[in-house]
Protein backbone atom coordinates (compact mmCIF):
# COMPACT_ATOMS: atom_id res chain seq x y z
CA UNK A 1 0.00 0.00 0.00
CA UNK A 2 1.12 3.56 -0.68
CA UNK A 3 1.89 5.97 2.15
CA UNK A 4 -1.31 7.88 1.39
CA UNK A 5 -3.42 4.70 1.49
CA UNK A 6 -1.90 3.73 4.83
CA UNK A 7 -2.61 7.19 6.23
CA UNK A 8 -6.24 7.00 5.11
CA UNK A 9 -6.68 3.48 6.50
CA UNK A 10 -5.14 4.30 9.88
CA UNK A 11 -7.02 7.59 10.14
CA UNK A 12 -10.28 5.77 9.42
CA UNK A 13 -9.50 3.27 12.18
CA UNK A 14 -8.82 6.08 14.65
CA UNK A 15 -12.00 7.85 13.57
CA UNK A 16 -14.05 4.71 14.25
CA UNK A 17 -12.37 4.42 17.66
CA UNK A 18 -13.31 7.97 18.63
CA UNK A 19 -16.87 7.65 17.36
CA UNK A 20 -17.29 4.44 19.36
CA UNK A 21 -16.04 6.23 22.47
CA UNK A 22 -18.53 9.05 21.87
CA UNK A 23 -21.37 6.54 21.44
CA UNK A 24 -20.47 4.52 24.53
CA UNK A 25 -19.93 7.57 26.75
CA UNK A 26 -22.39 10.21 25.52
CA UNK A 27 -22.76 12.04 28.85
CA UNK A 28 -19.94 14.54 28.15
CA UNK A 29 -21.32 15.47 24.74
CA UNK A 30 -24.86 15.77 26.07
CA UNK A 31 -23.77 17.96 28.99
CA UNK A 32 -21.89 20.30 26.67
CA UNK A 33 -24.82 20.36 24.26
CA UNK A 34 -27.19 21.42 27.02
CA UNK A 35 -25.34 24.72 27.52
CA UNK A 36 -26.29 26.34 24.18
CA UNK A 37 -29.80 24.86 24.30
CA UNK A 38 -30.45 26.26 27.77
CA UNK A 39 -29.04 29.65 26.79
CA UNK A 40 -31.24 29.68 23.70
CA UNK A 41 -34.37 28.96 25.71
CA UNK A 42 -33.37 31.34 28.49
CA UNK A 43 -32.69 34.33 26.26
CA UNK A 44 -35.70 33.71 24.02
CA UNK A 45 -38.38 33.04 26.62
CA UNK A 46 -37.09 35.06 29.59
CA UNK A 47 -35.27 38.00 27.98
CA UNK A 48 -36.61 37.85 24.41
CA UNK A 49 -39.12 40.71 24.50
CA UNK A 50 -36.85 43.07 26.45
CA UNK A 51 -33.76 42.27 24.37
CA UNK A 52 -35.69 42.68 21.12
CA UNK A 53 -36.85 46.15 22.17
CA UNK A 54 -33.27 47.07 22.95
CA UNK A 55 -31.65 45.91 19.72
CA UNK A 56 -34.27 46.63 17.07
CA UNK A 57 -36.84 48.93 18.67
CA UNK A 58 -39.43 46.18 18.74
CA UNK A 59 -40.35 43.06 16.87
CA UNK A 60 -40.93 40.91 19.91
CA UNK A 61 -39.61 37.49 20.70
CA UNK A 62 -39.68 36.31 17.05
CA UNK A 63 -37.25 39.05 16.01
CA UNK A 64 -34.86 38.14 18.80
CA UNK A 65 -34.97 34.44 17.90
CA UNK A 66 -33.78 35.34 14.41
CA UNK A 67 -31.01 37.50 15.85
CA UNK A 68 -29.73 35.09 18.49
CA UNK A 69 -29.73 31.73 16.68
CA UNK A 70 -26.55 32.29 14.56
CA UNK A 71 -24.63 33.12 17.73
CA UNK A 72 -26.02 30.10 19.54
CA UNK A 73 -24.95 27.84 16.67
CA UNK A 74 -21.39 29.16 16.95
CA UNK A 75 -21.50 28.69 20.70
CA UNK A 76 -22.58 25.08 20.11
CA UNK A 77 -19.35 24.45 18.23
CA UNK A 78 -17.30 26.01 21.02
CA UNK A 79 -19.08 23.87 23.61
CA UNK A 80 -18.70 20.64 21.65
CA UNK A 81 -14.97 20.92 21.04
CA UNK A 82 -14.34 21.26 24.78
CA UNK A 83 -15.12 17.54 24.88
CA UNK A 84 -12.32 17.01 22.35
CA UNK A 85 -9.79 18.63 24.67
CA UNK A 86 -10.95 16.38 27.51
CA UNK A 87 -10.85 13.26 25.32
CA UNK A 88 -7.34 13.97 24.04
CA UNK A 89 -6.07 14.73 27.54
CA UNK A 90 -7.58 11.47 28.80
CA UNK A 91 -5.79 9.53 26.05
CA UNK A 92 -2.53 11.24 26.93
CA UNK A 93 -2.80 10.47 30.65
CA UNK A 94 -3.97 6.88 30.18
CA UNK A 95 -0.90 6.14 28.07
CA UNK A 96 -2.69 5.18 24.87
CA UNK A 97 -1.01 8.01 22.94
CA UNK A 98 2.39 6.73 24.07
CA UNK A 99 1.34 3.26 22.93
CA UNK A 100 0.25 4.57 19.54
CA UNK A 101 3.67 6.21 19.11
CA UNK A 102 5.33 2.78 19.28
CA UNK A 103 2.97 1.08 16.82
CA UNK A 104 3.45 0.73 13.07
CA UNK A 105 0.72 3.20 12.18
CA UNK A 106 0.71 6.54 10.46
CA UNK A 107 1.63 9.04 13.18
CA UNK A 108 -0.78 11.69 12.02
CA UNK A 109 -3.74 9.30 12.06
CA UNK A 110 -4.14 9.61 15.84
CA UNK A 111 -4.65 13.35 15.60
CA UNK A 112 -6.75 13.22 12.44
CA UNK A 113 -9.04 10.62 14.00
CA UNK A 114 -9.75 12.96 16.92
CA UNK A 115 -10.20 15.98 14.65
CA UNK A 116 -12.55 14.39 12.12
CA UNK A 117 -14.59 12.73 14.84
CA UNK A 118 -14.92 16.02 16.73
CA UNK A 119 -15.93 17.95 13.61
CA UNK A 120 -18.64 15.37 12.87
CA UNK A 121 -19.91 15.61 16.45
CA UNK A 122 -19.90 19.42 16.24
CA UNK A 123 -21.92 19.39 13.03
CA UNK A 124 -24.42 16.93 14.52
CA UNK A 125 -24.71 19.13 17.60
CA UNK A 126 -25.34 22.18 15.41
CA UNK A 127 -28.10 20.28 13.59
CA UNK A 128 -29.73 19.32 16.88
CA UNK A 129 -29.58 22.87 18.27
CA UNK A 130 -30.83 24.18 14.93
CA UNK A 131 -33.78 21.80 15.18
CA UNK A 132 -34.59 23.19 18.64
CA UNK A 133 -34.34 26.72 17.25
CA UNK A 134 -36.70 25.85 14.38
CA UNK A 135 -39.13 24.26 16.85
CA UNK A 136 -39.39 27.49 18.86
CA UNK A 137 -39.84 29.70 15.82
CA UNK A 138 -36.58 30.38 13.97
CA UNK A 139 -37.07 30.78 10.22
CA UNK A 140 -34.72 31.66 7.36
CA UNK A 141 -37.05 32.22 4.45
CA UNK A 142 -34.80 34.53 2.41
CA UNK A 143 -31.68 32.34 2.24
CA UNK A 144 -30.98 30.67 -1.11
CA UNK A 145 -29.60 27.15 -1.52
CA UNK A 146 -26.16 28.63 -2.19
CA UNK A 147 -26.34 30.69 0.99
CA UNK A 148 -27.37 27.63 3.01
CA UNK A 149 -24.40 25.71 1.59
CA UNK A 150 -22.10 28.63 2.41
CA UNK A 151 -23.49 28.74 5.96
CA UNK A 152 -22.92 25.01 6.39
CA UNK A 153 -19.38 25.37 5.03
CA UNK A 154 -18.65 28.21 7.43
CA UNK A 155 -19.87 26.16 10.40
CA UNK A 156 -17.72 23.21 9.33
CA UNK A 157 -14.67 25.49 8.90
CA UNK A 158 -15.17 27.02 12.35
CA UNK A 159 -15.54 23.54 13.83
CA UNK A 160 -12.32 22.41 12.16
CA UNK A 161 -10.36 25.44 13.38
CA UNK A 162 -11.43 25.21 17.00
CA UNK A 163 -11.10 21.44 17.05
CA UNK A 164 -7.41 21.72 16.20
CA UNK A 165 -7.02 24.31 18.96
CA UNK A 166 -8.85 22.00 21.38
CA UNK A 167 -6.57 19.08 20.43
CA UNK A 168 -3.54 21.24 21.23
CA UNK A 169 -5.08 22.24 24.56
CA UNK A 170 -5.81 18.61 25.40
CA UNK A 171 -2.30 17.44 24.59
CA UNK A 172 -0.75 20.22 26.64
CA UNK A 173 -2.93 19.72 29.74
CA UNK A 174 -1.77 17.58 32.68
CA UNK A 175 -5.20 16.02 33.20
CA UNK A 176 -8.77 16.04 31.93
CA UNK A 177 -9.92 18.65 34.47
CA UNK A 178 -7.19 21.05 33.39
CA UNK A 179 -8.06 20.43 29.74
CA UNK A 180 -11.68 21.33 30.42
CA UNK A 181 -10.63 24.52 32.20
CA UNK A 182 -8.14 25.47 29.50
CA UNK A 183 -10.81 25.07 26.82
CA UNK A 184 -13.38 27.23 28.64
CA UNK A 185 -12.54 30.33 26.51
CA UNK A 186 -14.10 28.48 23.56
CA UNK A 187 -17.41 28.75 25.44
CA UNK A 188 -16.85 32.19 26.96
CA UNK A 189 -15.74 34.02 23.79
CA UNK A 190 -19.18 33.79 22.13
CA UNK A 191 -20.67 35.34 25.28
CA UNK A 192 -18.59 38.48 24.75
CA UNK A 193 -19.23 38.66 20.99
CA UNK A 194 -22.15 39.99 18.98
CA UNK A 195 -24.11 36.78 19.65
CA UNK A 196 -26.61 38.36 22.05
CA UNK A 197 -26.45 42.12 21.41
CA UNK A 198 -25.00 44.27 18.58
CA UNK A 199 -21.55 45.75 19.03
CA UNK A 200 -22.85 49.32 19.06
CA UNK A 201 -25.03 48.49 22.09
CA UNK A 202 -21.92 47.66 24.15
CA UNK A 203 -19.83 50.16 26.15
CA UNK A 204 -17.24 51.89 23.98
CA UNK A 205 -14.29 50.47 25.88
CA UNK A 206 -15.64 46.94 25.50
CA UNK A 207 -16.44 47.03 21.78
CA UNK A 208 -12.86 46.26 20.58
CA UNK A 209 -12.79 43.18 22.83
CA UNK A 210 -15.99 41.89 21.24
CA UNK A 211 -15.07 42.92 17.71
CA UNK A 212 -11.50 41.69 17.37
CA UNK A 213 -12.02 38.02 18.15
CA UNK A 214 -12.84 35.07 15.89
CA UNK A 215 -16.47 34.50 16.85
CA UNK A 216 -17.90 37.93 16.05
CA UNK A 217 -17.07 37.99 12.30
CA UNK A 218 -18.18 34.35 11.99
CA UNK A 219 -21.50 35.14 13.70
CA UNK A 220 -22.08 38.23 11.55
CA UNK A 221 -21.30 36.23 8.41
CA UNK A 222 -23.67 33.43 9.39
CA UNK A 223 -26.32 35.98 10.30
CA UNK A 224 -25.95 37.61 6.89
CA UNK A 225 -26.19 34.31 5.05
CA UNK A 226 -29.28 33.12 6.91
CA UNK A 227 -31.09 36.41 7.48
CA UNK A 228 -29.89 38.65 4.67
CA UNK A 229 -28.17 41.24 6.87
CA UNK A 230 -25.05 43.10 5.77
CA UNK A 231 -21.92 40.93 5.81
CA UNK A 232 -19.31 43.45 4.69
CA UNK A 233 -15.76 42.27 5.32
CA UNK A 234 -16.81 39.78 7.97
CA UNK A 235 -16.82 36.86 5.52
CA UNK A 236 -13.17 37.24 4.58
CA UNK A 237 -12.18 38.02 8.17
CA UNK A 238 -13.90 34.91 9.53
CA UNK A 239 -12.28 32.69 6.88
CA UNK A 240 -8.87 34.22 7.68
CA UNK A 241 -9.42 33.56 11.40
CA UNK A 242 -10.41 29.95 10.71
CA UNK A 243 -7.45 29.24 8.44
CA UNK A 244 -5.02 30.87 10.84
CA UNK A 245 -6.36 28.95 13.85
CA UNK A 246 -6.36 25.69 11.88
CA UNK A 247 -2.70 26.08 10.92
CA UNK A 248 -1.76 27.16 14.45
CA UNK A 249 -3.66 24.28 16.06
CA UNK A 250 -2.26 21.72 13.64
CA UNK A 251 1.39 22.62 14.15
CA UNK A 252 0.90 23.04 17.90
CA UNK A 253 -0.74 19.62 18.20
CA UNK A 254 1.81 17.92 15.95
CA UNK A 255 4.73 19.39 17.89
CA UNK A 256 3.31 18.11 21.17
CA UNK A 257 2.52 14.69 19.69
CA UNK A 258 6.07 14.31 18.36
CA UNK A 259 7.66 15.53 21.59
CA UNK A 260 9.45 12.86 23.58
CA UNK A 261 7.49 11.97 26.73
CA UNK A 262 8.98 13.16 30.01
Automatic annotation (TrEMBL):
Q: State the name under which the record lists this protein.
A: Transport permease protein
Its membrane topology: Multi-pass membrane protein
InterPro entries given in the database record: ABC2_TM (IPR013525), ABC2_TM_bact-type (IPR047817), ABC_2_transport (IPR000412), Nod_factor_ABC_transporter (IPR051784)
Q: ABC transmembrane type-2 domain: from which residue to which, for each copy?
A: 27-260
Q: Which family does it belong to?
A: Belongs to the ABC-2 integral membrane protein family.
Give TM regions.
25-47, 67-89, 110-136, 148-171, 183-206, 235-253
What keywords are annotated for this sequence in UniProt? Answer: Antibiotic resistance, Cell membrane, Membrane, Transmembrane, Transmembrane helix, Transport
Subcellular location, record wording: Cell membrane; Membrane
Lineage top rank: taxon: Bacteria
Q: What is the lineage of its organism?
A: Bacteria, Bacillati, Actinomycetota, Actinomycetes, Kitasatosporales
The organism of origin for this protein: Streptomyces lateritius
Q: A Pfam family in this protein?
A: ABC2_membrane
Amino acid sequence: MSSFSLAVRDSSTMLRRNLLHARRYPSLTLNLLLTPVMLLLLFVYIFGDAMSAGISGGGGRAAYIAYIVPGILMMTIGSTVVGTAVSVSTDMNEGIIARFRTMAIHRGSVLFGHVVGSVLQAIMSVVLVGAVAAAIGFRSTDATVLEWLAAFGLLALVALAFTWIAVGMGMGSPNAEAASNNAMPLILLPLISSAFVPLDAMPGWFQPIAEYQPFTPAIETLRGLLLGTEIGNNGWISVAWCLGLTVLGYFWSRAQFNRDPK
